[in-house]
């Protein structure tokens, strides 16, 4: 943007003062009045008109523009159908340390041949450059896929069925939990809660525009007495992290909903469950959440009603087909208050 400020003595005299002339044009163009002092000092009052670049004046005033995209300086976006493997080193045989979901963003730190060294979320590793959108194309793509995220800023946030504090509480979210915002209202936001809609007060969240981030694949530490079957089941289930959520689906690679994901994982180990979270809750033995071992099932819902299921993987975490937005992911087991916990495996 250019501010055309004529600096002839006659023009300035007619307008009264240099500052008045500058301010009149600043107001007309919607530029912050904070730039006035920079413009004033930048002018030398010669007889010839001169074009002054407002961006130069802003820089001189110390008001630099934020050129990052959702916090990324050198943005890369995953150009894959499901998710992109992140490895510990620039080598196909290197350990898998995370997954970058479709349309997720990352900071490109450096290039190493066909490999890119990236940082996304808590994952720092290497991906194949062929599967990243970069440069101007990444900037354009980001405007299509970025999401508004509400981060919980209070110890426990009630998610309501309607936009008032007298209605039913459908879930409770811990501090730091991130919710996908569907709509914003005066004082409230509508959020995606495992594919359902709920409402939370704006007073207890921090809103930001983000791109999806990489998901960690840190090893799960198991306590003593955990059977090989449980360890194997959890290892099997977590390899599908990053794959899509599909309502009514049961494919671990092409897409599954919450109960379809659980059904397909357990079927590999000879346990055949129905395709319904409510029905699955009737199988096995009910236990306290504090007694849960890897491979047990956590159920969530409204009141005593059940509408979501996840597999406990230890260390206070679950793996589940969360929603169409986030797909299969790892979450804190208490990101919502579990309605019921069940042990399905006999050992």
Secondary structure elements and pairings:
Elements: E1 2-5, H1 9-15, H2 18-29, H3 36-42, E2 50-53, H4 54-60, E3 75-78, E4 83-87, E5 96-101, E6 105-112, E7 115-120, E8 123-128, E9 132-134, H5 135-145, E10 147-152, E11 156-160, E12 169-174, E13 178-184, E14 188-193, E15 196-201, E16 205-210, E17 215-216, H6 228-238, E18 250-251, E19 255-256, H7 258-267, H8 277-280, E20 285-287, E21 297-300, E22 308-314, E23 317-323, E24 327-332, E25 340-343
Key descriptive features of the protein:
single chain, 347 residues, alpha+beta, 6-stranded antiparallel beta sheet, 5-stranded antiparallel beta sheet, 25 strands, globular
Descriptive overview:
This protein is of the alpha+beta class and 347 residues long. Helix content is 20%, strand content 36%. The protein is built from eight helices and 25 strands. The strands form seven sheets. The chain has a six-stranded antiparallel beta sheet. A hairpin with a 3-residue loop joins strand 18 (250-251) and strand 19 (255-256). Helix 2 crosses helix 3 and helix 3 (36-42) packs across helix 4. The termini are far apart. The model is unreliable at 1-64 and 219-224 (pLDDT under 50).
């Amino acid at each position: 943007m250019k501010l055309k400020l004529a600096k002839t003595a006659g023009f300035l005299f007619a307008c009264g003062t240099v500052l008045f002339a500058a301010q009149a044009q600043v107001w007309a163009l919607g530029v912050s009045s904070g730039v006035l002092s920079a413009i004033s000092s930048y002018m030398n009052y010669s007889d010839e008109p001169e074009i002054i670049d407002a961006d130069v004046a802003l820089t001189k005033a110390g008001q630099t523009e934020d050129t990052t995209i959702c916090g990324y300086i050198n943005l890369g976006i995953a150009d894959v159908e499901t998710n992109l493997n992140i490895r510990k080193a620039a080598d196909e045989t290197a350990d898998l340390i995370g997954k970058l979901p479709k349309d997720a963003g990352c900071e490109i730190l450096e290039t190493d041949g066909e490999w890119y060294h990236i940082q996304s979320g808590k994952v720092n590793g290497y991906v194949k450059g062929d599967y990243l959108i970069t440069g101007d194309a990444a900037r354009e793509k980001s405007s299509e896929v970025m999401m508004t995220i509400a981060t919980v800023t209070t110890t426990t946030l009630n998610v309501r069925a309607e936009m008032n504090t007298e209605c039913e509480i459908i879930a409770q979210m811990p501090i730091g939990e991130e919710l996908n915002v569907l709509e914003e209202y005066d004082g409230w936001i509508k959020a995606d809660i495992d594919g359902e809609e709920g409402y939370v007060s704006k007073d207890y969240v921090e809103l930001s525009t983000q791109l999806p981030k990489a998901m960690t694949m840190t090893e799960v530490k198991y306590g003593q007495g955990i059977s090989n079957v449980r360890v194997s089941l959890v290892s099997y289930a977590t390899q599908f992290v990053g794959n899509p959520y599909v309502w009514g689906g049961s494919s671990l690679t092409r897409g599954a909903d919450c109960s379809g994901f659980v059904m397909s994982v357990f079927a590999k180990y000879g346990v055949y469950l129905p395709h319904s979270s409510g029905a699955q809750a009737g199988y096995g033995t009910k236990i306290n959440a504090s007694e849960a071992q890897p491979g047990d099932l956590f159920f969530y819902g409204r009141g005593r009603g059940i509408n979501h299921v996840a597999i406990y993987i230890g260390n206070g975490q679950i793996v589940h087909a969360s929603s169409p937005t986030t797909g299969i992911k790892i979450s804190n087991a208490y990101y919502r208050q579990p309605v019921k916990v069940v042990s399905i495996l006999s050992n």
